[in-house]
User: Fold these one by one.
Assistant:
Number 1:
Amino acid sequence: MTVFKSYLLMVKRNYGRLLLYFGIFIGIAVAMSIAGDKGSTGDFSAEKAEIAVVDLDQSEFSGQLIKFLKEKHHVVVAENDKARLAEELYYEKRDIVLQINKGFSEAVLEGKNGVHMTQRPGSYNGVYISQQIEQFLGDVLSYHSFGYSIPEGCKRVMGRKECRVTLDDENGNGGKTPAFSYFFGFIPYLFIAALGVVLGKVLVIFRDKRIKNRMMASSFSLLRQNVQILFGFWIIGSLLYILTAAIALIIYGKDLLSAPNIGYYLLNSYVDMLAALEFAFIVGLLVKEEKRVDMIITPLSLGICFLCGVFVPQQVLSGSVQTVASFLPVHWYEKVNNLLIEHAEITGEVSQKVWQGIGIQVLFLIAMAGISMAIAKYQQQER
Amino acid sequence: MIRIENLVKRYGDLVALDHLNLEVYEGEVFGLLGPNGCGKTTAISCLLALLKFDKGTIRIFGEEMRPDSYGIKRKIGIVPQDVAVFPELSVRENIEYFCGLYVADKIQRKKCVEEAIAFTGLEGYQKMRPHQLSGGLLRRLNIACGIAHKPKLIIMDEPTVAVDPQSRNHILEGIQRLNREGATIIYTSHYMEEVEQICTRISILDHGRSIATGTKEELKRMIKMGERITVEGIQVTEGQIAAVRELPHVFQTEYDNQRLVICCSAAKKNLMRVLHYLEEEEIVFGKIFSEMPTLNDVFLEITGKELRD
């Protein structure tokens, strides 16, 4: 195992690079997990505005409107002190000042506007509240047109049950994106960049013409040399994979372990790691100087990851970009990953799509192995 | 031990080896001498089955050499022209690696590595990386990697290129020691002094062909010149130069910048006769000395050009 051991030793000498990429990856993945988690709760919170109402009409209808608003917002009935109300808006005590004009009831029945709304600069609640008032008044008028009195109409509108929203949790994620899915989403970057730079670089050293000649002149067969180098590749890749999975377990613990589709996440990322290994192998075969490996891998890994939807969601990528990306295994990795994010329970059609995505990645592995062999054979014949 | 017959290697239109014939016997230090580009490295590469050749046969230890002749390769050590070691590994790790390609047994390998380190005088540099070594030490490491597994045949392709005189002497002494310990050595160089110093038999290569093979004495006997007499600080007339050329065994004279070079065929008392003539003619001179022909003279006379052209 001379070649294998020395290969590992040389990789060990470059472990600083591995740690660097690992650090960057963990940082980005964890930051995105936290950001993603916050975003998902904020989007669905119900917000209440601070409203001051000046009732100049003092009618039953205006009273019903105030009652309606109180059910939805924090409402204070205020005196008609314009200077004070302006001050309250300025100091952000109130979001909106709603003035119910004298003759409000008559104006509404005639289809005219009976209120005046002033909102705090920078507040976006005005449109929302205005819609709520319009809706309320419109509904009361509808009841009125069917013969109900205004107070009766108001009662009926307010007595109406709110639409009940039920979450049809088809994917089993409880409507949330699991935090670890961001971690798995970024994995391709780690594998391509770290394995490409470190393993590719060491392979370039092994393939240096002078060293290659010396090894070819030895009694150690070319087949044994290649097998041991490939074994070294696989061991390093698998170690990185295990380390990555262990870090994911440490960070996400129970969430990850209790995810019903954890097996799919692990399988998908393992296949992706194998693809990254083959990519590193091809780079190692084609690049002639070890110094150039960095120069090639860094833009290439970033480019592939952008193109395939590692850094940005695949949904926002244009059709043509996705078509180009579909010729790369990372695209299919992300596709499977997205399916896993959307569906915790993998059954039926989803299962078929997941296996199809993993199968395509395996086909890429076979194709890349063929390309590597062809390059190696060509380089051998060149001699 | 090695028999190369009618070896032809072409790179497109360029004929690198043109029906090369060589025979190397066991226990000798065989020198391949020739100017840069004469085909020395190509011949070595074909010998090691690193290059496919167009025609001819190569037999080593009585067997035909092929890329998969691992039994033969096990007995061969190679010291390539360019230093071929891993920059990421230390001196000791490099020697262990290349020794490990031949010697599977761990204990035996350790012993071989220790001996190679001691042989090349790298004891104090074992933990250093190649980039920390001087040019001479790097060459020694290159040699240690090639000889650690104790090969019967060692092929050294210009191992002293770009090496300081001290390291060069160390390397040359080492090669002679390896030979004394039983290794057959093929040594390529374009430094004729080195080849003269250590090789028991020499083949001179030019344009991919062996133009002369033999011991250095045999090679020198092949040419007309047996002695070169140089007189410096001398002023002579055309008539006097013509008279010198008429002396017995003198076949050529050159006079330039108060320097007279007299080429004589091998004979006794050539110098005495020249001195006697100068005395008779009362010609004053600064310095006179006589030299035996070098391999460069052999090359020059056979090819019409200098070895270092």
Number 2:
Amino acid sequence: MAELFQFELVSPERQLLSEQVAEVVVPGAEGEFGVLKDHSLFMSSIAPGILKVRNDGDSWTEYFVRGGFADVSGGRLTVLAEQAVPVAEISREQLDLAIKNAEEDAADAKDDMTRQKADRTLRRLKDVAEALKQV
Amino acid sequence: MPSLKDLRNRIASVKATQKITKAMQMVAAAKLRRAQEAAEAARPYAERMGAVLANLAEAFEGRDDAPKLMSGTGSDQVHLLVVATAERGLCGGFNTNIAKLAREKARSLIAAGKTVKIICVGKKGFDALKRELGQHVIKTIDLRSVKNVGFVNADEIGKEVLSMFADGEFDVCTLFYSTFRSVIAQEPTAKQLIPASFETDETEDRSGAQPVYEYEPDEAEILEDLLPRNISVQIFRALLENAASEQGARMSAMDNATRNAGDMIDKLTINYNRRRQAQITTELIEIISGAEAL
């Protein structure tokens, strides 16, 4: 039996999840990372993508998250996301809207830095859309 | 001297008013519960955000390369006041109190020779401010069509403020709203958004060795990402507090109104009965004295 730790997923509007879990995979800004019990103190901003949660057992629950950050401290993981939706509930329109926004961002970016950032966001969103289509 | 008929009409009209205020009170009570739930649901996010930012900000204290949103532009010449009020009246002193606080602040700033710009969120705030400070209002944001305030609405206002800051249109930004204490107590509050101020938790023991955090990407980048987001979160929180306060204020105002109407009906009814009695007595005396004269 895997050791459990406290995990919280919070969006500005409500707390989506607060429970004991075995493992969480977070789409960090510089790559995905997994969190198990007794992870060292860590903070990362998150990129739009799929956040996976494993309760005790082998089944994963997936959430689509966008914008925000993850914080590991005091033996718990907190993910603050601007938007967090269970994958089962996400609608094509919402995702399309996010992609359209990202495209616009990339188009009006003033300097290279912001353009790169917007491009990266756009790519991630397209990946997610791709992944969802297969489901 | 009002006639009996006038009194009767008056009683009927007060009764109708009482029915309306009673209904408004019930509606406000129902909406209050929902608004309160929303405000409570949003609390964990804002709190965590504040804690994390305070942590990060400490690392940057006194450093030259701290982001502008935190350290300020180095001047305090131009002030932006964001005044968040309700879209509807009939809620006691709710709108007036927020407007009053904002007006006092604006007055003292103008007296000190600063430039003041105002953004009104909600129509009532603009109505209250336009007479004295109308020429300072640069924008009004209308949320009347929005039924339940969502993060999107707050984010829009936040982006607006940020783009103005990026263009150097102001140095200091203060947000005015009403904190929800209880149904009968709402407290008008001014909160400085830019440069960001953090309440650090004094109860926490900071004497021990600070644990080493690992950041990805580095601290500066995270902070730069978080500060703008924090503005939207603060505004969102203010809007939710406002929504709850508004319903609370309306509920107690309507409760008072209902009670006052009740008192008035009682008084008018006593008056009416007395007058009716007097009229009957007069009529009787007339008949009797007429009969006696025969």
